[in-house]
Amino acid sequence: MNRLFASLTVSADTTITSKKEAVQTEKAPAALGPYSQAIKSNNLLFVSGCLGLVPETGKFVSDGVEEQTEQVLKNMGEILKASGGSYSSVVKTTIMLADLKDFKKVNEIYARCKFSSMILIFFFFMISKRAQ
Q1: Which parts of the chain are coiled coil (predicted)?
Q2: Residues forming a β-bridge with 93
Q3: Mean pLDDT of 43-64
């Protein structure tokens, strides 16, 4: 079973503050460890790694990379909304795939999002089966 893991850093149109603020929403899965879903610092938002988990159940949406990718993006969208941001404010995503053959499918799903094409940077890392 392939598991998709994604993380992104966003620049959001928020009021500049001098403190860090945790962002939390029930519309995305709770963090699996002692960390926040996201941290807002000044005009930047740092979203923790997201998985294709359904918020209500805490379970993976399916074993399929397409469904997991769509769920990851839905979860990230909810975190962005909770912070006052949107997909159009994203400046970087990091996607980790277990299998290179899933690259095309994941890329096609990401292309349907309303990311700003002028500033979006993709970084893909392939995780060896041994690391899982």
Answers
A1: none
A2: 8, 122
A3: 92
